[in-house]
């Protein structure tokens, strides 16, 4: 496998991340929206609001790093299909929890 082919998931994730962040900020209405897409795209960050009652700077950093970390993991592992399905399943499960568990302050 060539160097570029090996790191393709990371490159794609680095390109996609700013678009996902913009979609999240737009969905959140820059503080006045419904946060639906933030819950779907960044479930780790949104689930943290259950404990902290707000989106903290630390979890903004976690959300910003989420997709590049997915890309790094997929670039490093040998069985991308299995790990990709695993990452997707965890992400979807947490996104569903995020949609149903987040408090009214983020509805």
Verbal overview:
This protein has 107 residues and is mostly helical. It is elongated. The protein is built from six helices and no strands.
Provide a brief overview of the structure.
This protein has 107 residues and is mostly helical. Helices cover 77% and strands 0% of the residues. Helix 4 runs antiparallel to helix 5 and helix 4 packs parallel to helix 6.
Keywords:
6 helices, mainly alpha, 107 residues, elongated
- Helical run tally: 6
Shape: elongated
Beta-strand level of the residues, as a percent range? under 5%
Q: What is the β-strand count?
A: 0
Secondary-structure topology with pairs:
Layout: H1 3-6, H2 8-27, H3 36-41, H4 43-52, H5 57-76, H6 80-101
């Amino acid at each position: 496998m060539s160097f570029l082919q090996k790191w393709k998931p990371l490159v794609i994730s680095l390109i996609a991340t700013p678009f996902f962040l913009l979609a999240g900020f737009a969905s959140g209405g820059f503080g006045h929206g419904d946060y639906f897409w933030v819950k779907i795209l960044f479930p780790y960050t949104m689930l943290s609001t259950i404990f902290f009652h707000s989106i903290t700077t630390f979890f903004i950093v976690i959300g910003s790093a989420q997709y590049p970390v997915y890309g790094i993991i997929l670039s490093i592992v040998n069985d991308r299909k299995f790990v990709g399905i695993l990452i997707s399943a965890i992400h979807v499960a947490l996104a569903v929890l995020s949609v149903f568990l987040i408090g009214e302050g983020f509805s």
